[in-house]
């Protein structure tokens, strides 16, 4: 997995988790949903990179 893409995926996942937690703490459903979406985006990016790595081997 490309180091840059891997870091980007992890950062998106962490940012999403923080946003989701902040949304839950404040009762803001929109922020909670945005956090979940960012986590999913990071998961997809990470999965794509893992598939690329598996194909290359």
* Contiguous uncertain segments of 5+ residues: none
Q: What is the percentage of strand-forming residues?
A: under 5%
| Element pattern in H and E | HH
Distance between the termini: 12 Å
Tell me the number of strands.
0
The gross shape turns out to be elongated
Q: Nearest-angstrom radius of gyration? A: 13 Å
Helix vs. strand class: mainly alpha
Q: Largest sheet, if any?
A: none
Helix proportion of residues, in percent?
over 70%
Number of distinct helices: 2
What's the rounded overall pLDDT mean? 91
Write the layout of secondary structure elements.
Elements: H1 3-26, H2 29-56
Helix pairs in contact: 1-2
Question: What are the salient characteristics of this protein?
Answer:
mainly alpha; 57 residues
Description:
The mean pLDDT is 91. This protein has helices at residues 3-26, 29-56. The N and C termini lie close together (12 Å). The chain has two helices and no strands. With 57 residues, the chain is mainly α. Helix 1 (3-26) packs antiparallel against helix 2 (29-56). It is elongated and about 45 Å long. The relative contact order is 0.21. Helix content is 91%, strand content 0%.
